[in-house]
């Protein structure tokens, strides 16, 4: 008994077209298929259900999941059967990047990702889940005897082989890292998304604005806790917005060029360790000079540095 991911494509209904537009893909819904039965959470069926669906290849794309455990999928369905549709987590995780979930409700790609044992299931849209499943399928066969199927134990790090003909980078399950490893990884990805054209010095400057938010002296900071929390704070670093072109790279759906990412990691390491001095003079904000005009928050703020295409500020009102 095998598992397949079925993704609905090119649906012309209004709701589906909105999802396609938001996720930047032809996909609007997904199902897990086990023994001819489709399992998912559906808007039309008001939540989690099992259903026999005619998977017309003109309307559905099927992705084989040789690494997936069908018993796990069925067990997860038994535990969640009848859960309502996840409007709450859909709104906060997909629209506002907050990764807030309701354990009694799931949307389709969240449910499918959780049933497969993937980390942070609510971050997935049908597009990103399909991309992740395809990628996992690339190394499932050669490593089937060496790597157990998900879910992996706490703090395990699963490293996939390089993507063929693309780059030498590899994909790591970020939520299975230690807190320190996750901080480094998220900070480096943020530096790549925000400042990959600025050189090492420019990336160090951007990293210091993040460090200054992390170490703002408050017990519970509005900026978020730790480097990962600050970087992923909703609407603060645009590269993490789901409608930003960089997001596909930061989330792992597309590969970041290895050389560029290595430089971002060097900048992250130097700033986290404090071995690179703060060139921004305590800045917590910056904006790109490519913007048509300076943001409103610059009024009354103290400019501390102009470096490359970024202008840095502290004491922002």
Note down, in words, how this protein is organized.
It is a single chain. The protein has 317 residues and is α+β, with helices and mostly antiparallel strands. Helices cover 37% and strands 16% of the residues. It contains ten helices and ten strands. The strands form three sheets. Strands 4-3-2-1-5 form a five-stranded antiparallel β-sheet. It has a three-stranded antiparallel β-sheet with strand order 8-10-9, covered by helices on one side. Strands 6-7 form a two-stranded parallel ribbon. Helix 7 packs across helix 10 (258-273).
Q: Supply the number of structural domains.
A: 2
Radius of gyration: 21 Å
How far apart the termini lie comes to 60 Å
Largest β-sheet summary: 5 strands, antiparallel
Number of helices: 10
How many β-strand stretches?
10
Strand/helix succession:
EHEEEEHEHEHHHHHHHEEE
User: Largest sheet, order of strands side by side?
Assistant: 4-3-2-1-5
Portion of residues within helices: 25-40%
DSSP strand content: 15-25%
The unreliable regions are 141-147, 155-176
- Please state the average pLDDT score: 83
Class of secondary structure makeup: alpha+beta
What does the oligomeric state look like here? single chain
Overall shape: it is elongated
């Amino acid at each position: 008994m095998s598992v397949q991911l079925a993704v609905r494509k090119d649906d012309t209904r209004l709701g589906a077209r909105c999802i396609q537009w938001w996720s930047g893909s032809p996909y609007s819904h997904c199902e897990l298929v086990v023994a001819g039965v489709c399992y998912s959470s559906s808007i039309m069926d008001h939540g989690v259900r099992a259903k026999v669906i005619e998977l017309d290849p003109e309307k559905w794309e099927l992705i084989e999941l040789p690494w997936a455990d069908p018993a796990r999928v069925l067990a997860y369905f038994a535990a969640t059967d009848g859960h309502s549709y996840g409007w709450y987590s859909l709104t906060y995780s997909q629209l506002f990047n907050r990764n807030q979930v309701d354990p009694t409700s799931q949307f389709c790609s969240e449910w499918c990702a959780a049933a497969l044992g993937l980390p942070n299931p609510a971050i997935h849209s049908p597009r990103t889940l399909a991309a992740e499943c395809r990628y996992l399928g690339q190394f499932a066969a050669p490593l089937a005897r060496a790597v157990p199927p998900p879910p992996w134990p706490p703090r395990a790090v699963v490293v996939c082989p390089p993507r063929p003909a693309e780059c030498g980078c590899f994909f790591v399950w970020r939520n299975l890292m230690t807190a320190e490893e996750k901080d480094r990884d998220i900070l480096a990805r943020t530096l790549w998304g925000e400042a990959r054209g600025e050189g090492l010095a420019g990336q160090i400057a951007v990293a210091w604005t993040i460090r200054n938010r992390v170490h703002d002296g408050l017990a519970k900071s509005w900026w978020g806790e730790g480097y990962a929390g600050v970087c992923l704070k909703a609407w603060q670093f645009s590269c993490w917005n789901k409608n930003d072109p960089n997001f596909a790279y930061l989330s792992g759906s597309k590969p970041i060029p290895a050389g560029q990412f290595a430089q971002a990691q060097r900048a992250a390491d130097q700033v986290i360790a404090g071995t690179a001095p703060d060139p921004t003079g305590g800045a917590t904000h910056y904006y790109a000079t490519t913007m048509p005009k300076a943001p409103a928050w610059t009024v009354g703020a103290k400019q501390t540095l102009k470096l490359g295409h970024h202008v840095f500020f502290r004491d922002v009102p």
